[in-house]
Design goal:
Number of helices: 5
CATH topology of the largest domain: Jelly Rolls
Strand order of the largest sheet: 1-2-3-4-5-6-7-8
Structural class: mainly beta
Number of strands: 26
Helix content: 10-25%
Radius of gyration: 25 Å
CATH architecture of the largest domain: Sandwich
Strand content: 35-45%
Shape: elongated
Largest sheet: 8 strands, antiparallel, barrel
CATH superfamily of the largest domain: Acetamidase/Formamidase-like domains
Number of domains: 2
Length: 421
């Protein structure tokens, strides 16, 4: 609701200064508005239309109408639940500054609040991608270093703690959009990986914890890239001959968090993605992120040669790798949560302080996805959950626990409301 008015303010205010007889400035297009929302800078976008000195627009569902006269802008925005924003703005030096009287329809008392804002036009995509800038449709070819900061040649390039590659600025990506990231290619680029021999606390009861005391020491694994397998470098007698097939994945992939929140660490997770450690984040997977800041600021890293469900040792087969991802945008439609699509399933991920909470979060996210994209009613969704849901524990180390809910695409393809491929 609040974004609509701010965005409209931006659009209106960015008109060029006019004399009394000057022509009306052209304001149509997309704008960025920064609102001082009770001390927190908040960014919204607006797609604005103009007919002479009359303006209209839409931002996150808000309907806005108003006028521009000279460098003075006035408009009123209304939402569907009784909220409104009455805006007065003025253009100066290509930017606008103004105030709005906000009535929040979600507040029971609906008291008016006076907020200030500034606005500028949204940047346009560049003619060619400069360093760290890419356009929608481009493919990024790069490499990651491992969770300890070691590169493909065994050289330390960063401090330990899941260092990431990026950020990549996606030209034209704006709050309110969805960033689409398709993982095209993941290749191991060295012959070793590091893990440990411990177990995360969520996987232990009191008796197991006693038996695991003193463990958690490093274990080196050999990677046979020709055969596509991994094996402990110095196994004990019980594990001699043990090997596993590798399945490269990205433990971390995300975008910048909402600017009203504290900057997350490289081990954090949230609506922005982050250190999700879902072991199907490999080749052929597509990830959808809600864009919170201009450019989205995509990053990825924490490559794993292989990881079992849950990352129960507190790490996986940590290694560096070569990466190719393709980026794209869905403009004007923002996913509420991170969404994942593998070649065979659609996947909702829940990331919260407990597996119970993550179970609910994943279920609610999938519920919203099926309702919005497949047109299903609650009773329909319940039947699909009851017959086709596949729940998996994605990650349990750290402050957040992860749970994913997978629905096979084959089950959904027969539905009348299924999206066309």
């Amino acid at each position: 609701m609040r974004g609509g008015i701010w965005g409209m303010a931006a659009a209106l205010a960015c008109a060029a200064p006019m004399t009394a007889q000057a022509q009306t400035a052209q304001l149509a297009g997309r704008w960025i508005v920064t609102v001082d929302y009770f001390g927190t800078p908040t960014i919204w976008t607006l797609d604005l239309a103009q007919d002479g000195n009359r303006i209209s627009g839409d931002l996150t569902g808000d309907v806005l109408t108003g006028t521009v006269k000279g460098n003075e802008i006035r408009f009123l925005a209304k939402d569907k639940v009784g909220g409104s924003e009455d805006v007065t703005a003025r253009l100066a030096n290509g930017r606008i500054a103004g105030e709005m009287i906000l009535i929040d329809g979600a507040e029971q008392a609906r008291m008016p609040h006076r907020l200030s804002f500034t606005a500028k036009r949204a940047p346009q995509p560049s003619g060619g991608p400069p360093v760290l800038h890419v356009n929608p449709g481009d493919t990024i070819h790069t490499a990651t270093i491992d969770a300890a900061g070691i590169d493909a040649k065994g050289v330390r390039r960063a401090a330990p703690g899941n260092p990431q590659t990026g950020p990549f600025y996606i030209d034209g990506a704006m709050p309110g959009d969805t960033l689409v990231v398709r993982i095209r290619r993941l290749r191991l680029n060295r012959d070793t990986a590091i893990s440990t021999n411990g177990m995360t606390e969520r996987g232990q009861d009191a008796r197991t914890a006693v038996r695991m005391a003193g463990l958690g020491k490093p274990v080196t694994w050999r990677l046979d890239r020709d055969k596509g397998i991994a094996m402990p470098e110095a196994p004990g007698d019980a594990l001699k001959g043990y090997w596993v097939p590798v399945k490269p994945m990205l433990g971390g992939i995300g975008v910048a968090a909402d600017p009203s929140l504290a900057a997350p660490g490289s081990g954090d997770v949230g609506r922005f993605g982050g250190n999700m450690d879902f072991n199907e984040m490999g080749e052929g997977t597509t990830v959808y992120f809600p864009v919170a800041v201009p450019g989205a600021l995509l990053y990825f890293g924490d490559g794993h040669a292989l990881q079992g469900d849950g990352e129960t040792t507190g790490d996986a087969l940590e290694t560096s790798m070569d990466v190719e991802v393709e980026v794209d945008l869905v403009r004007g439609k923002r996913a509420g949560q991170v969404r994942i699509e593998t070649p065979t399933h659609i996947v909702a991920i829940g990331l919260d302080g407990s597996l119970d909470a993550s179970f609910r979060s994943a279920s609610s996210s999938m519920f919203a996805w099926l309702a919005a994209d497949y047109g299903l009613a609650p009773a329909d969704i319940a039947q699909i959950f009851g017959t086709a849901a596949e729940y998996r524990v994605s990650a349990v180390p750290g402050r957040a626990a992860g749970m994913v809910l997978k629905i096979p695409k084959a089950r959904l393809a027969t539905l009348p409301g299924a999206p066309k491929p």
